[in-house]
Each structure stands twice: as C-alpha cells, then as structure tokens.
Amino acid sequence: QVQLVESGGGLVQAGGSLRLSCAASGSTFSINVMGWYRQAPGKQRELVAAITRGSTNYADSVKGRFTISRDNAKNTVNLQMVSLKPEDTAVYYCNAVWSNGGPQYQYWGQGTQVTVSS
Predict the structure, then answer these.
(1) How far apart are CA 110 and CA 3, in angstroms?
(2) For position 2, what pLDDT does the model report?
(3) pLDDT tens, 94-117?
(4) CA angle, corner 16, sides to 95 and 78, nearest 5?
(5) Cα(109)–Cα(4) distance, rounded to whole angstroms?
(6) DSSP secondary-structure letter at 17?
(7) Most CB within 10 Å of its CB: which of 46, 50, 81, 104?
C-alpha cells in the first residue's frame, strides 16, 4: 500500500509560477514511476509529467515550462511550474506506479486545484 498526499496548489495569474509537492508513504521502496496528471472540467485526466529512477517524460503542452523532480530519500516528487497559462487550470493528481516484480498497481493522491487567471 502507498499513500500520496499533494500540496502546493492555488490561484496564480498567467505567467506566474507554482510548485506542487507529493509525499509518498507506505511501501515506497517498490515505487517504479511517479508522476503528475491533471484533469480539467469536462476533460479526461491526462499525463503531465512522469519520472522514473533514470528518466523523465513530459506532455508536449508543458515541455520547457514544467520540471518534475524526485527525492528518493524523502519519498517526494515535485512539479515546478513556470510561465503558467489559463489552460493549465485543472486538478492535479500525484500518481505512483508500484510493483515488486509482479503486477503493477497505481496509486493516486486526492488532488490539488491549480487555477491560472488570465
């Protein structure tokens, strides 16, 4: 079992910055991938950024503006967001993919609202 708790959302003007953090607890040793997804009203949840122990992956819409980082010692994953746009407005969810060699399991945080005003 893994528990994820996000923090850092809020309201910001276009062009501003926010930093999201996600703290993982429980069986964190077997977390292979951590990432951030977002869901805007009326839209499907989409991948924003993900990080494994050796690589990162970003949605095209956030490349060059968002940076994902992971602190394995603290079991946290952060998302630094700069040059925010109104279209970045969404609920952001932390995600962890867990496997100890068998089936993979996905865990989700409760979500944190990011609102970018124009």
Answers:
(1) 10
(2) 93
(3) 999 998 888 899 999 999 999 999
(4) 25
(5) 5
(6) -
(7) 81
